[in-house]
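User: Some background: our group keeps a shared notebook of sequences we're curious about, and every so often someone picks one and asks for a predicted structure to add to the entry. Today it's my turn. The entry only has the sequence so far, pasted here. Could you supply the structure so I can complete it?
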Amino acid sequence: MSSERLAGKVAIVTGAASGFGRGIATKFAQEGAKVIVADLSEDAGKQVASELGGVFIRTDVTQKADWEAALALAIKEYGQLDIVVNNAGASYSNKATENVTEKEFDMCMNVNVKSIYMSTQVVVPYLLKENRPGNFIQIASTAGIRPRGGLAWYSASKGAAITVTKALASEYGPKQIRFNAVSPVVGVTGMTNLFLGSTDISTFVATVPLGRPSTPADIANACCYLASDEAAFITGVNLEVDGGRCV
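Assistant: Of course. Here's the predicted structure to add to the notebook entry:
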């Protein structure tokens, strides 16, 4: 039975049409939140929103106008916005760094880092103007903590996401706006083959003490806790949801 830990809260979840984002959106809805499903994939996004009783908006997270539209939709539909989950992410295929194209570099930095900039540029002024507490959660990665060869620029983008989360937490804590990050270990998602260069994750899973990859439910549970009032005194944290991988 749901405990309704997010009752009365409104959340934007980016990349919510699939994978970790869908898991997060589903958990939030189960816990009583109203969810804005923000994604580039219209058909899948609309389906998720319909299932959750939320609303969908096509969103390019690198574009300020799209963030402004998502905020406007939240206010129009639900009268407020409380939570932003920056889940949408991008990577390139695991390969030698000298073979990474400028386009691939830009994609990682724009989707994984610029999106955080854009969300704060739009949503923080709204929270300050309304004198509302707020809650940002970035989905980072264990690659931002323990980088390895083949994904240098992806790892750098996730390291940046973790660092800026801490900086923003310090800056906006006095305004009661919390910023936290969640760092999953590799899971079985649409991006798994990019991270590993293969769909076979057995070798990587062997490095995880708890012996399995992460799941959308694992990440959703962590995000739900950080978004809830149970975590009211937690900000600037990067929560590793990794089965002990980063120990």
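Suggested note for the entry: The two ends are 33 Å apart (CA to CA). The CA atoms of residues 195 and 239 lie 20 Å apart.
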